[in-house]
Amino acid sequence: DSGVTQTPKHLITATGQRVTLRCSPRSGDLSVYWYQQSLDQGLQFLIQYYNGEERAKGNILERFSAQQFPDLHSELNLSSLELGDSALYFCASSAADNEQFFGPGTRLTVL
Amino acid sequence: GQNIDQPTEMTATEGAIVQINCTYQTSGFNGLFWYQQHAGEAPTFLSYNVLDGLEEKGRFSSFLSRSKGYSYLLLKELQMKDSASYLCAVTPTGASGGSYIPTFGRGTSLIVHP
Questions:
Q1: Cβ atoms within 10 Å, residue B54
Q2: DSSP code, position A61
Q3: A100 close contact with B: CB closer than 8 A
Q4: Interchain CB contact of B42 with A (< 8 Å)
């Protein structure tokens, strides 16, 4: 158990819909990272937040957005969902640059 | 940009030793991660190499050569539970805002058979 929690574990929805994925980092970690992992793309970095502020942005679509709240939990919002958005979404947290601890992931299926 | 190469799949026998290679080409380099990921589960941290040389942690060791852009993960006394995907990831230097975002390779699927 990494100490990072993610909800929900599974999510099934339809194209065009909007969903919110939630992540709680390890106690004391200020950084939260979001990743997307699909079979054909591997693990892709989406976005990082540090203590409530966006710190780095990767290959995140405009339909996707995220935020980190004062209690340090983070949410990833995915809208206008497409079939190709079906993937595992991981959150990771860290206290230092030489480590990242991953949550169990949310498996999103878009039908 | 960054380019990371790993073999797609490897097989080995229980009790044996296996070496998983990773080569990278980056515009800047800070360090290299190795993660283990079982199917459908989260990646778990194995090692982080910043300096050249070999670092040993129990049955797993990781080696880095910065000048050659090369790393390997060595797994000894293989067990069936070691069947998993092994991800190599490189972090750049001097990223914007002081952030070090790792770029992951596609992973090497290791199959350990009896």
A1: 11
A2: -
A3: yes
A4: yes
Chain A partners within 8 Å of B41 (Cβ)? 104-105
Nearest-Cα distance to chain B for A27, in Å, is 18
β-strand pairing of B9-13 with B108-113: parallel
- Write the residue in B30, B97, B106 that is nearest to A42 by C-beta: B106
Render pLDDT for A1-17 as a digit per residue (tens, 0 to 9): 889 999 999 999 999 99
Give the position of tokens 């980056």.
B26
Please give the pLDDT value at position A95: 85
| Strand partners of residue B12 | B112
Q: pLDDT tens, A22-63?
A: 999 999 999 999 999 998 778 999 999 999 999 989 889 999
Is 70 exceeded by the pLDDT of residue A78?
yes
The contacts of residue A100 (CB under 8 Å, 6+ apart) are A33, A92, A93, A94, B33, B45, B102
* pLDDT computed for residue B99 by the predictor: 60
Residues pairing with B63 in the sheet: B54, B72
Disruptive mutation site among B22, B32, B44, B45 for chain A (greatest number of A CBs within 10 Å): B45
> What is residue B97's predicted lDDT score, i.e. its pLDDT?
47
Q: Token pair for residue A21?
A: 């994925």
Using the Cβ of A99 and the Cβ atoms of chain B, whether some distance falls under 8 Å is answered with: yes
